[in-house]
Amino acid sequence: MDIYLKLIDVIVPVFTLVGVGYYLGKKNPTYDTKFITNFAAKFGSPALAFYAITSTGISFNLFINYFFYTLLAVICFSIIGVVILAIQKRDFISELPPLILPNCGNMGLPICLFAYGKLGLGVASAISAVIIISHFTFGIFLASKKVSFKVLLESTPVYAVLVAVGFLYYNIQPPKFIENTAFLLAYSTIALILMSLGIALTKLKVFSLKNAIISTFARLILGPLVGLGLIYFFDLKGIPAGVLFIQCSMPSAILTYLVGSMYSSKKVVNSIASTIVMSTIVSFLTIPIIVFISLKYFF
Question: Which of 109, 113, 154, 199 is most buried, by the most CB atoms less than 10 A from its CB?
């Protein structure tokens, strides 16, 4: 019974905030999320990354190890994605990002926090760091088919990760006033980005149901299998293993749509939007199962 109560404690807050955002988006179709986007990009996400890395008890070695495991996961996702898109005769370059970059930030971080506490948030931050960097390097390369590091160099969260890792490496505890400030910004960001996810779902549409279903299968079924494969290959145990499994099981990241909108054709952008909407909706069914497995076998 305890595990079912824990599952409720993890899932209900996340889905409730997404639901609030969806309600606001439906009630006001012109709802402007620019404030949330700017706040999260410039202040919230950097603070969340800094707090999660420096104040949750994660060690430098643990951070580096799970950073490496996530890189391997992205490589595996990429191989699977290319094969699936090539079989369908779709653009296996520009349409690849939503298959290989899960929503580890908007959904993964709060779920790992509620499931495993501060340590879960710390490990999840190592995984999210890889995904953030991938968005601004690999993601832009795939969308534009050009190499550019300009957006990466202008990304505040990336610098926050680098500074936080420096604190970890030298075993420096940040001053309490910095930790408290980061704490407030971090937790307010979690609430805002979950609501923004709900608002985004009211604006994105499914343009190709067949392609969206196949891509969703790749993200939500094969993604967790890759996570389990890494866990058993490297003999990972406990909370960190559970966090990796959860993060590998997240739906497609909304940021892939934003990047695609800037660099890809309308046809590709519509395909990406379809994958995000379908995978996010289906994840409301799969995430409780994933969290249940994680709590039962990786604690």
Answer: 109
